[in-house]
Fold:
Amino acid sequence: MKKQFEIKHLLKKRKNILFLIFLVLVCIFFAKNIFLKSNFKDKIIMLKEPKTKTINLPARALVIKDEYLYYLGENDFKEDGLKINVNKELADVDVSNVDENLKNHVSSVIDKFNEKLDEKDSDSKNFNLDGISYYIREKNFFNAFSEVNKISKVVPNKKVYVKDKLFRYSLLDNTFKTGKILSKNSGVVSNKIDGLENIYDFSIIDLLDEDDFNFENSKSSSFISGIKIVDNLRYYLCLKTKHDMISDVDVNSSLLVNFGSDSFEGIVKKIKRNSSSDLFVLEFYSGFDEILDKRFLDVNIEKSFNKIYELPKSSLMQEDGENYIISVDSFNNMKKIKVVVKFIDNVNDKVYIDAIKSYIGPFYNILKDARLVKKGEISN
Structure:
């Protein structure tokens, strides 16, 4: 009986010891945690549940449309957005007094354009097609001939450029022959003519650079009395952003861009990175009504992410091409954890970590600035 009592007493004593050890460990844990929080109060972030987030990255956009000017003088096409089919008669023109030399010269220019379609690079120059059409409309045929004569020795260097000018001069040639102005492209009417239509067309997509945004500050206007017909099925936006604001985009990838009242998807056709800014040329097939009467506008590039952790960019460290963050446990032990980065926001200094593919989770304490610790202080 006494022996049983001693056994029970020994077991009870052992339980008390174990409980005491457990209590000490808990106290140490909380003490360390308090110490951690007091020492790293402003240096760590405790992860919560992953979230879904959409960020907006600002950009300035230059609009490039497939648009053609028709020099009609006073006309009945006052409604913007009116749809026009190919070969619609727009106006009559008295060409009875047009000099035959001018007609022949325009025809010869067209022949030169046709020849150059098969040639390679050479010098190029902008032609004053606005001036030629205006002088013809005003029956100032001497000036019209002078403008055409200026291009007799000029050879365009881009096939797309040549095709575009060939289209425009063929329109002029057709007017000489028929006495009528016919629509040679389909689209919608716009009465807002800014004088940049023959500068910013599809032929210059590969030539766009930062300098093209200088036109935004000029009070561009045109003496043209007429309309333009704009292709409403396709257009381009040249987006100007801060340098390295978007680094995860390649040619032929897509970007969601917000302008007007909605967001529209564009396909990246060209990327040009400079020291202070980057240019992205995107092709669009929707959202035309929002840009019909615009040449420059503010837009936002939308980036949406599911199941991500948002951290300061400074929390990210890179080694051998891999991305890591540093977690800190309750005992001040720092560990390097490999992560998958979804996006780096260089404007707001944020990094977005894939919560599914990275080995971190809620309640992890992450060091805000990985530069605060030396390499030897981190365990793998």
Q: What stands out?
A: Residues 298 and 311 are 28 Å apart (CA to CA).
